[in-house]
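look at this record:
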Amino acid sequence: MELSDAVRNRRMVRAFSDRPVPAELLDDVLAQALSAPTAGNSHGVDFVVLRGARETAMFWQATTTEDWWQRNPRRAGMRSAPVVLLPVSGPPPYLARYALEDKARSGLDRLEAWPIPFWFTDAAFATMIVLLRAVDAGLGAAFVGIFRGESSLLSSLGVPDGLRPLGAVLLGYPAPHQAPSASGLLPGRRRGERIHFGSW
């Protein structure tokens, strides 16, 4: 598939079949994600991979409540995703990298010196590669935020202190019927309103 086709066809999938993702395909998706740009070649993004109902249930139990599912019945199909990926990053690898001799003059070995936290930027780059590679492979994917239970989830998964998930990527084969999301029905802004040549 051409990159332009993957970009054009990418959609957030909110219902998954129970068909498992082959291990070699998952390995390929992750290998490509880890080739994403990374500030200073810091390699500061890791993925926690939850596979199968037992492992993915840990994610849903930590980050949602039964009351939330009852208020959002259209999202029930998300729980069927056979894989949940957590792109995890944080300052430690970046501060260490920018303390090395070739980067020391930048002053970015101190947390407060970073005007934008590139650890999240790098995690977003890697996440976008996952979303595009999913389309290319005939998989469905959705990025979801983590709005509750983050600390208990990270603790149960043994994630080191100082690292946080950007969110989570649900990955699997799409269910045959996808209910449209309310967000997808919004008209959106035209391209000409969002591109500013020379000045705003």
